Amino acid sequence: MSTRHALVIGASRGLGLVLANELTGRGWQVVATTRQDGGELQANADASNGRLSVESLEMTSADQLAALRERLADRRLDLLFVNAAIDRGDLSIDEVPTDMFTEVMITNALSPLRVLEALRGLVAPGGTVAVMSSEQGSITLNTEDGYELYKASKAALNQLMRSYATRHADDRQTKLLIDPGHNQTQLGGPDAPLRPEQSIPAVVDVLEAQSGAPGLQFLDRHGETVPW
């Protein structure tokens, strides 16, 4: 079997870091991005015998995104995975300052789709474009209060991904929104029931199983459909 190639956007820590490591461990050739040089991702790359390489990217910067596209122009990807999310606390929407609303929406909803639009040309027909979402973005499952801005940003991400999938329906690329579950990350907190080392192998199983599937799907780490 030929080597599969992946680009993981947002891999400096947490879910993205473990995702890059898991793909590398399964024999993928991986490029992973981080906003800052060094750290655990670079250490993993140094020890990977060339299977993992690191690129610098602030994904909210159009100039940096264009520069990354240029640096990777000769690559052909089997997987483009965008992992990006911030949260600014459990505020009701009437307590959220406008600048905070803008920051969270840009990072969690707008920037991931800008990344897909900028880099989708690197993905081969039959390849996969995927974005880390959350069941918190499900309108159907929003039956408890709390974290209103974060939920809204993930719902916006999902809606934008639906529009993206409609616009590019004929590109023969698999399109996935992935809910990895509630994990012990900087975002999820120390009391979350899952560790990334538990959830990400299952996520990669889903990515590999869905390769070549048509249309857009919103799936959890078990491959089950998450309601919109």
Topology record:
Layout: E1 5-9, H1 14-25, E2 29-34, H2 39-46, E3 52-56, H3 62-71, E4 77-82, H4 98-119, E5 123-132, H5 148-167, E6 174-179, H6 196-209, E7 216-220
Helix pairs in contact: 1-6, 3-4, 4-5
CATH architecture: 3-Layer(aba) Sandwich
From the N-terminal CA to the C-terminal CA, the straight-line distance is 36 Å
- Number of domain modules: 1
What does the average pLDDT come to? 93
Q: Rounded to an integer, what's the Rg over CA atoms?
A: 17 Å
Note the overall shape.
globular
Tally of helical segments? 6
Helix-strand string? EHEHEHEHEHEHE
Reported by name, the CATH topology is Rossmann fold
Name of the level-1 CATH class: Alpha Beta
Q: Tell me roughly what share of residues is in helical segments.
A: 25-40%
Number of strands: 7
Class from secondary-structure proportions: alpha/beta
Sheet-strand content, in percent, reads 15-25%
The profile of the biggest β sheet is: 7 strands, parallel
Widest β-sheet, arrangement of strands: 3-2-1-4-5-6-7
Low-confidence region ranges? none
